[in-house]
Description:
Number of strands: 7
Radius of gyration: 28 Å
Number of helices: 14
Distance between the termini: 27 Å
Strand content: 5-15%
Structural class: alpha+beta
Order of helices and strands: HEHEHHEEEEHHHEHHHHHHH
Amino acid sequence: MEPQLRIRAWRDELQGIGGTNPLVSFELSSFGQVDLARSHPGGLAQLVSSRSTTLSNLVRDGVAQARAHSTVRRIKLKAERISDNFGIASLFIAGGLVEDENTNQKLPILLWPTYLISKGDDYEIRIDARPILNPALTNLITSHRPSFNPNDLLAVAVGQGDLIPSSVLALVSEILQGQAVEVEKLLVLGNFVPDLLTTQLMHPAQDSSLLLELAAATELQQLADAESIVLVANADSSQQAVLKKALGGSSFAVETLPGCGYLQTAVNLIANLAYVGKRALIIGPRQQTLDEMAERLGAVGLAGLAIRESQTWSDAVSAISRNEKAQPVALSDALAAKLQAEA
Length: 343
């Protein structure tokens, strides 16, 4: 598959994952965001000047404060989950908004990295001294002005007495002058994922050299995986096609009739996954099927390669015994002999 076609396939796959991206289609929600534009001026001034304040200092009304605490708790838990699962920081205060009437997109401008620290029943809010620019907005601006440098806009934002400086809004309006866009004030605390690679991937106007190289490398890796199959049991051409597709990283299902060699195909697949250092979870509708799979592995000299839940001890002993008795082999010579026999 050509790199451009692979990138297009990645885009189609990404469009079906997750919900609305607030970096592109922002909608204010009291459930998952805290509107700081309505916060107390004294608390907001402290946040801007000292880069730190408490939530109770920003939201002082009793009912609104209780609602804000619940929202911040959800924001913090979601940020921790995203960080643990993907290693991506997602806790930001978004400042400023650009609404593109042509695409109906609503894009935050500045993203201030934020940290939430629990302080008893309250939360301390800390922000970095330097924001980042929404990558989706960068794509929008560069599509109209290719010479745009994001650092020029960020330099205007740093050192101001506001998290949404009017000078930044004015500069964005000037840069996008002549386009059907509106620049508005916005200041919300929430979860945003400014992942540069994903943002570039979802921007159809450009395919960066990094994406093209990644797509080409993926193609080469899949070809290498498919060509390095080591058969431990007999396999015809259709079974080898299944192995190549599985080792190439595809997700699919195989429907077959009893007696068509599905177990030996599974044995070959398990052996090849182990050969490249990967692990597999084997699920069967009956214990008899799993026992037969273990017997098939033992018959080809791979006893204990699969550990059954019901026979953990015996399978572990078989694996240890197999490794202790293993002898080095010239695999390259064996593969050469196999290719010569198939020629």
